[in-house]
Design a protein that fits this description.
By secondary structure, this protein is of the alpha+beta class. The chain contains four helices and twelve strands.
């Protein structure tokens, strides 16, 4: 009986640990980000509630199409806690992406969030790759109204594969999910990663690495 009690206590402790594995739950109604505070915590310090207004929870413009006339053919409108101070400690944010035909959101990852994406217009190829050693690709073409989830931290991508423009909106499980574009990070770092190292890592000639670095 004593052993059973110890097992139950252990399972409860593990369960509590798993429940609190994500961003911590708020301890008050809200904690609007105080960008002027010198205090640095995991997030922002709380603005005096007496100074909080409805505008701290408001963002205007997510309905407006973005300019996709760029090499990627996409535009990302990503209001996070920096644009909506009321998101501070809430563990959520959103993003709208506009795509020209064949436009892409190249492979990237969010170091602090999972993501769920909804197609508002068009047809969009989406996918993510699991961690090493499997590196398994999960990919699907989505149409208007379809939904797809990207697991926490995994590399994923989107591409407009329809004949017209496309629009998606996504929700992320962090007020500040961050984004790490794989190509920009590897080939555009400052200072630059050694050409010889990258050539060996990608199994190509160093001249190719130099060409890949040139746009950055």
């Amino acid at each position: 009986m004593a052993n059973l009690v110890l097992i139950l206590i252990s399972l409860l402790a593990i369960g509590r640990t798993l429940v609190h594995a994500g961003e911590p739950s708020p301890l008050q109604d809200f904690c609007v980000a105080d960008f002027d505070s010198p205090v640095r915590v995991n997030g922002h310090a709380c603005l005096d509630p007496k100074k909080v207004t409805a505008d701290h929870f408001f963002f205007e413009g997510l309905h407006k199409p973005g300019n996709t006339s760029n090499p990627l053919g996409s535009f990302v409108n990503r209001p996070t806690v920096d644009e909506i101070p009321g998101l501070n400690t809430l563990g959520i944010s959103t993003v709208r992406v506009d795509y020209a035909p064949r436009g892409v959101v190249p492979p990237h990852r969010h170091p602090r969030a999972s993501e769920i994406l909804i197609v508002l217009e068009g047809e969009v190829l989406v996918g993510f790759v699991t961690s090493d050693p499997e590196n398994k690709l999960f990919s699907k073409v989505l149409k208007k109204g379809d939904v797809f989830a990207f697991p926490f931290g995994l590399i994923h991508f989107q591409q407009n594969v329809g004949h017209g423009n496309a629009v998606t909106i996504a929700f992320l499980s962090s007020q500040n999910p961050g984004v790490i574009p794989i190509a920009n990070t590897v080939f555009g770092s400052n200072p630059s990663i050694n050409d010889d190292l990258l050539a060996k890592a990608f199994r190509v000639d160093k001249s190719i690495i130099r060409n890949l670095k040139s746009p950055y």
